[in-house]
Amino acid sequence: MTPIGEAELQAYTDNRLPDERRRVVEAWLASHPDDAARIAAYRVLGEQWRAAYAPVIVRRKRRWRVPAAIAAGCAIMALGAWQVSEHAPHYLPGNPAVEMVRRASLAHAVYAPEVNHPVEARSRDELLQWLSERLQMKVQAPSLEAAGLAFIGGRLLPGERAPAALLMYEGANGQRVTLYWGPEFRRERETGLVHARADNGTRIYYWLDDGCAYAIASAELDEKELLRIAKMAYAQLEK
Fold it and tell me: Which among 73, 69, 105 has a CA at the least distance from the CA of 196?
């Protein structure tokens, strides 16, 4: 039997395959229990996240239409929608990179389009000091001015075992980039920069080291430009 590619498995997870191809994929999964278990886990997690976060997204005032916001949020939350570089760790439930990237993507989807209150109403110094105290580590806002992005603020986010932070930058045309800090996902062995992308177009470059886990996210910039920005942040935060 011809192997089924990851793109088609993702389409099957999202119920986007025509009947003929769906039957082929189901036959493949019947003889490949590891893939079948992975797809089943993706679907369960996707349903859990849709149920948990759709009401939150509906209540928020957005720059986009509510149905589009829900669809975008659901696309992000469904783990089967992720496409990662060949250097990424294997994406299975329980992998810290998966959970960190999912949270960073959700935070970007919720706060980056926000018009009225995307960030805390604090000065830069006060905000970074407050976030540092809450995360129990020094939180820095790397300069991205060389890429045409100005720091506009940030906010504290909840975590499973420790709080996280989201810093936000904005370009001259209103495009926004976020930097997620997730200390609970730190790991002894550094990953280096890894690219991930959600079905709705949100791109992420992330890395994990022994101090923290970071993710640069954008729904508007292409991969090349986001990589340039991620390298700027990486160089400043890894000194």
Answer: 105
Q: Same structural domain for residues 183 and 125? A: yes
pLDDT at 60 over 70: no
Say which residues have a Cβ less than 8 Å from residue 37's Cβ, sequence separation at least 6. Answer: none
CB contact at 8 A, 198 and 81: yes
Q: For residue 238, give both structure tokens.
A: 């890894």
Q: Tell whether the model's pLDDT for residue 85 goes beyond 90.
A: no
Count of residues for the chain?
Answer: 239
DSSP-assigned letter for residue 74: H
CA pair distance 211, 238, nearest whole angstrom: 10
Which of 115, 113, 176 lies closest to 144, judged by CA? 176
Q: Within a domain: residue 128?
A: yes
> How far apart (Å, rounded) are the C-alpha atoms in residues 222 and 140?
25
Alpha helices in the chain (DSSP H): 6-13, 19-30, 33-59, 66-77, 96-111, 124-135, 223-237
Q: What is the pLDDT of residue 159?
A: 80
Q: Are residues 59 and 133 part of one domain?
A: no
Domain contains 98: no
Evaluate if residue 105 carries a pLDDT over 70: yes
Q: Tell me the torsion sign for CA atoms 155, 161, 162, 165.
A: negative
The string of DSSP codes covering 150-165 is EEEEEEEE--SSS-EE
Domain boundary among 43, 66, 81: 81
Closest Cα to residue 181, out of 202, 211, 153? 211
Could you tell me the residue range of the domain that residue 29 belongs to?
6-81
CB-CB neighbours of 66 under 10 Å: 13
